[in-house]
Specification:
- InterPro entries: FAM69_kinase_dom.
- Keywords: Membrane, Transmembrane, Transmembrane helix.
- This is FAM69 protein-kinase domain-containing protein.
- Residues 224-414 form the FAM69 protein-kinase domain.
- There is one protein chain.
- By secondary structure, this protein is an alpha+beta fold.
- The chain has helices at residues 4-65, 72-90, 103-108, 160-163, 177-192, 198-207, 218-228, 231-238, 276-295, 330-338, 373-382, 403-414, 420-432, and strands at 117-119, 129-132, 138-142, 248-252, 255-259, 262-263, 301-303, 311-313, 319-321, 327-329, 358-359, 364-365.
- The chain contains 13 helices and 12 strands.
- The longest helix is centred in the first third of the chain and has 62 residues, at 4-65.
Length: 436
């Protein structure tokens, strides 16, 4: 009271200042906490984004490495560029000749090649597969390097060291043309289970430009050995006269070009856009093709990896099987079963879609395929059944299919007794019924 209103007013002012200060501090603290929480959220979000980016990059690299997806840039930098450097620098022949004298090299090693290629996905058996546009479409494939190769089916090719070696003089030894032809003849004949036409071997040597100069290079011969040990390349050549598979059109180093055909579908995960009539016609083409595999060679030819996009048509409307890595004549298929040292179930005796049976008493594979090409076609192509994680669309699955066709397809996939002629009759009737 003695101090009066002035003193009291001063104290009141200090209280107001203190309250104001505390209020400001509280606001600052709240703001700071908010910023900390926001920073934590941003930091957490940044970490999540970073992890996602790393995972996506790793996943992309893994999918590229496994050929599940593809990249034109990868083909250019990791395949074409390296190939062209090899044929330009490492594989020169005397008198100015080089491996690039091969037509395919001249098509690949040009400045505008990036605008003329498209990559292919889902080719797990090849380092790279792509389409080359130019003087007609070609499908380019490369062979697997020796260190990545699995054991060859049947008899293996002669070891490179047993064919080419250094003489005491230090010069490189090369077998004579006749000797090399004899070795290749034995290898291919063992593969197909029959004597091979010698004209095929001569064509192989000419395609690889062997014995076209006075002195051969080891690089040229090594590439030749790698090519003939490629299952797809060899199958195309061995059965070329049958016109069942795409032809080899040229080589460049360890790369080769094959005839391009239009596949049944570019993406088997999507429904078919064909009309029902065209589906029936395509199915008839495929069934008649299966009949050829049973009759045109000295023994049946087996399709052991059947997929929708493995069937293609040329410009004359002839159907062929496109992926030859798992196409086997019966002799070769039985050899794979015979060479299985021990089996505990039927899957041990199976080669992809070519199913075998394990004899449980002997733990050995019976030398017989237990299903047929026709059964696999009906099941996987016409009905779209698959053991993979992805559901495939069947070529003949439609509300337009009549009861007879549906019953025939179900019987075909499970019963070895269904014949090609029987399925041809059913499909022909279904197709003719659309005319009325």
């Amino acid at each position: 009271l003695i101090l009066g209103d002035g003193r009291c007013g001063h104290l009141k002012g200090r209280r107001e200042m203190k309250i104001t200060f505390i209020f400001s501090c509280c606001l600052a603290k709240i703001f700071e906490d908010m910023m900390k929480r926001r920073r934590k959220k941003w930091m957490l979000l940044s970490v999540v984004v970073l992890v996602l980016v790393v995972v996506m990059v790793a996943l992309r690299d893994a999918m590229l490495a496994s050929r599940i997806i593809c990249s034109t840039t990868d083909i250019l930098h990791n395949h074409i560029t390296l190939l062209c450097k090899e044929v330009e620098n490492d594989a020169k022949l005397p008198h100015g000749h080089t491996l690039s004298s091969q037509d395919l090299c001249r098509e690949l090693c040009v400045a505008d090649v990036p605008s003329r290629i498209t990559c292919h996905t889902f080719h797990l058996n090849k380092p790279t597969v792509f389409t080359l546009y130019g003087s007609g479409k070609k499908v380019i494939k490369s062979v697997i390097k020796p260190e990545d190769q699995e054991e060859s089916i049947g008899e293996s090719a002669a070891d490179e060291e047993e064919v080419y070696w250094k003489l005491k003089s230090g010069n490189q030894y090369f077998p004579t043309k006749d000797n090399l032809q004899s070795m290749v003849n034995i290898y291919i004949s063992n593969f197909v289970g029959n004597d091979i036409d010698k004209a095929i071997i001569s064509k192989l040597l000419n395609l690889s430009k062997l014995y076209h100069s006075e002195t051969e290079t080891l690089a040229n011969h090594r590439n030749f050995w790698l090519l003939i040990q490629d299952h797809e390349f060899l199958t195309s050549f061995a059965f070329e006269k049958l016109q069942l598979f795409p032809s080899v059109l040229g080589t460049c180093g360890t790369y080769y070009a094959m005839q391009h055909l239009e596949p049944l579908t570019e993406n088997p995960m999507l429904p078919f856009e064909l009309t029902w009539r065209k589906r029936l016609w395509k199915a008839l083409d495929i069934i008649k093709y299966i009949r050829q595999l049973e009759t045109v060679w000295t023994e049946p030819i087996h399709l052991c990896d059947v997929k929708h996009d493995h069937f293609g048509w040329n410009d004359k409307g002839k159907v062929m099987f496109l992926d030859l890595d798992s196409v086997l004549p019966e002799t070769s298929l039985l050899k794979t079963m015979e060479n299985t040292p021990h089996c505990s179930d039927n899957e041990d005796c199976s080669y992809f879609d070519c199913k075998g049976r394990c004899h449980l008493k002997t733990s050995k594979c019976e030398l017989k395929r237990t299903n047929t090409n026709l059964q696999v076609i009906c099941d996987k192509i016409f009905l779209g059944n698959t053991e993979s994680l992805f559901s495939l669309y069947g070529l003949l699955v439609s509300y337009e299919a009549n009861e007879e066709l549906r019953e025939a397809l179900e019987l075909c996939k499970t019963n070895r007794g269904m014949t090609v002629d029987g399925m041809v009759d059913v499909l022909t009737k279904a197709s003719n019924s659309l005319l009325y």
